[in-house]
Amino acid sequence: MKALILVGGFGTRLRPLTLSAPKPLVEFANKPMILHQIEALKAVGVTEVVLAISYQPEVMLNFLKEFEEKLDIKITCSKETEPLGTAGPLALAREKLVDGSGEPFFVLNSDVICEYPLKDMLEFHKSHGGEASIMVTKVDEPSKYGVVVMDETTGKVEKFVEKPKIFVGNKINAGIYLLNLSVLDRIELKPTSIEKEVFPMIATDRKLYAMILPGFWMDIGQPKDYITGLRLYLDSLRRMSSSKLASGSHIIGNVLVDESAVIGDECLIGPDVAVGPGCVIESGVRLSHCTVMRGVRIKKHACISHSILGWHSTVGRWARVENMTILGEDVHVGDEVYSNGGVVLPHKEIKASILKPEIVL
Q1: CA 3 to CA 177: how far, in whole Å?
Q2: How many CA atoms lie within 13 A of 233 on its CB side?
Q3: Which residues form the Mannose-1-phosphate guanyltransferase C-terminal domain (predicted)?
Q4: 3-state SS string over 210-244?
Q5: What pTM did the predictor assign?
Q6: DSSP letter string, 117-141
Q7: Which is nearest to 174 in space by CA: 208, 134, 119?
């Protein structure tokens, strides 16, 4: 089987992190976002993953080369020279997806995190005999998403409505699809929306089916949702593989700590924290609801909450960083500095407090 991951554009919603790395390579729970998906695809028998990408393809492929060898899965790239929407990239990658086997192929949005029940989706797709299967998830306020109106007994989709103006249901498109090769015949090589044009057409022909996604789901393409997604992911990890989580008297709730990280005395870490490789957390530090990426150093008695600390940054003694502060790569926060929602571009030194949310250029 094959799969296509829609890598997309410039990752502007996750800046300043995406100023240093393409969004799919930004770590989530201590591994690149896209690696969560590639590992899940490999687990259900996918042998080749095609990345539909328009931004820094060389960086992506060079980085993923080691994982291609480690996971024994082929990773190739289909580069857009102009934006093609969410369906055009499928037409562009047609030759890579069609290999004569006749097998359906997966399509995933690159910034979706969940438990990836792809084996169940394969069985569902084979059982209904339609042309396309999509995963949907239930939400409280679906109006800003593509809403799916479906028969929950059979899974048959009655209507697919992209960003409706009125409330028409509580199930939204989760950004994970399993498509027959015949779907490619419906897509022209031009900017096309799979949500607005392709799925409504398949639904009209009564060949679109939806599977309700079990477990959690989150689009982690922006900082607030990234932090929420981390909480949901770690909670899922607790249920499915709790041995991967940290434990000890200094740990509260669900915490993921890379084995190469160094944690000092009298720290209090958690809940919902990921500490990456090579990090140094000095004594007396308090961490909660945050991600600390590779090579970060947090000095004595600093307090970090609801924030993301980019690669190789430093937080000074008694500093306080909170309220969705995002530090880009190699940012240095001084001793006793307070950051209230600062978004700091890479390679900056912060000597004065940031008292209200703002971008620090």
Answers
A1: 10
A2: 28
A3: 251-360
A4: EEECCCCEEECCCHHHHHHHHHHHHHHHHHHCHHH
A5: 0.86
A6: -HHHHHHHHHHH--SEEEEEEE-S-
A7: 134
Query: How confident is the model at residue 308, as a pLDDT?
Result: 96
**8 A C-beta contact, residue 51 and residue 77:** yes
Residue 158 CB neighbour total at 10 angstroms: 14
- Name which of 38-52, 152-166, 320-334 the model is least confident about: 152-166
Q: Please give the Cα distance from 134 to 88 (Å, whole number).
A: 18
Structure tokens at 21: 């790395």
Residue with tokens 């709790």: 242
Tokens of 103: 């097998």
Q: Enter the tokens of residue 253.
A: 């709730």
Q: What is the pLDDT of residue 167?
A: 39
Exposure on the CB side of residue 316, measured as CA atoms within 13 A: 15
The tokens describing 227, both together, are 């932090």
Distances (CA, A) of 305 to 227, 242, 256: 10, 23, 15
CA–CA dist 140, 318 (Å, integer): 40
Q: How many CB atoms lie within 10 A of CB 65?
A: 11
Q: Rounded distance, CA 247 to CA 250, Å? A: 8
